[in-house]
TrEMBL record:
Family in the record: Belongs to the TRIAP1/MDM35 family.
One GO molecular-function entry: phosphatidic acid transfer activity
Membrane-spanning segments: 20-46
Entry keyword annotation includes Nuclease: no
Keywords, ordered alphabetically: Disulfide bond, Membrane, Transmembrane, Transmembrane helix
The protein's name: TP53-regulated inhibitor of apoptosis 1
Reaction(s) this enzyme catalyzes, per UniProt: a 1,2-diacyl-sn-glycero-3-phosphate(in) = a 1,2-diacyl-sn-glycero-3-phosphate(out)
Amino acid sequence: MHIRGPSNKSAMSGFLPGSVIIILFLFFIILLLILQILTLLFCYLVSGRLSPQLKKVRQTKPRPARQNMNSVGEACTELKREYDQCFNRWFAESFLKGERGGEPCGDSFKRYQLCVQRAIREKDIPVDGVDFMGPNKDKPES
């Protein structure tokens, strides 16, 4: 009786030959490159179609970084700007350099605060329970 050893066919049946694996690997790499090229081409085409709008946006004048808001009452807007300027000057020239003493811009803040309180009363804005009157927490004058 003659016993045969395992044949090469049955041993290799569960595996792909090395060259097939390399070819599949290269196929997937090429596929990924094609997808990347198509994505870049799509982005280029879209940006080309949008370029008139983009050019228009780029040609507009840049807006200031921060626009000052008006106060709650028209009569208070100038007092608010005066206080904002004073505070910003103090913040940049003193506070950021470590000088934290005193009450900066106290007079301009008090004038602005009184004006806002008056405007709130005149406009009948309900502020019951709102704690916003500043460091002294003064009640609005009647």
